[in-house]
Amino acid sequence: MIEARTWMADVLPRLQEAFGPRLRYLGLQGSYRRGEATETSDIDLVVLLDTVALDDLDVYRTIVHAMPEGRKACGFLCGVREFAAWPPHELFSFAKDTTDHFGRLEDFLPPVTREDVRYGARIGASTLLHLLTHSYLYADAEARPAILKEACKSAFFLMLVVHYLDSGRFCASKRELLAELDGVDQEIIEAGLDLSAPPADRSEKERYALLLNWCREVMRTA
């Protein structure tokens, strides 16, 4: 397992050598940023260049694959003009879950309003509701437990936004968010954690109902 700060410090000069002043930003997202990474975790990078041509993708892939555990590298690569035109409702939690390692992400962000944040929450809830409904109807019985667990993990990112809308505070990690929740919200987050303890004693059907009802509530109230 990598040490994230060292890994980022090592990849930065390689990117600078390859792209020079075209490299505008480097950041880290995801479980490594939150201090929640495991041996199987991806390394979620955020990279902004002045523009991105297909050849740039080839160069970038070669650089990250040459890094220790570089096959785990993933994340976001974009040109600054495209990033400035990105739908704002997708950028609130994106920015909150990113730590700067070169440049400042806020210098490239378009304005994001509270209405954008609310809109993003409703889209996230509707997307998750569709996934759950589709899997309940059509997924094989053997596949549904894994789908439910992934749905709970997805609900974490949505719940970060919902909690922010309710409290004005964006939690930095799952553990931090969990400490501020109770009831159904807490149960959903616990079900998505990589814990040795089993989730709450609910049947598969009850877990689907729990998540579907929560999604409907977010769509109605966000």
From TrEMBL:
One of its GO terms (molecular function) is nucleotidyltransferase activity. Pfam families: NTP_transf_2. Residues 27-52 form the Polymerase nucleotidyl transferase domain. Gene3D superfamilies: Beta Polymerase, domain 2. It comes from the Bacteria. This is DNA polymerase beta domain protein region. The lineage of its organism: Bacteria, Pseudomonadati, Thermodesulfobacteriota, Desulfovibrionia, Desulfovibrionales.
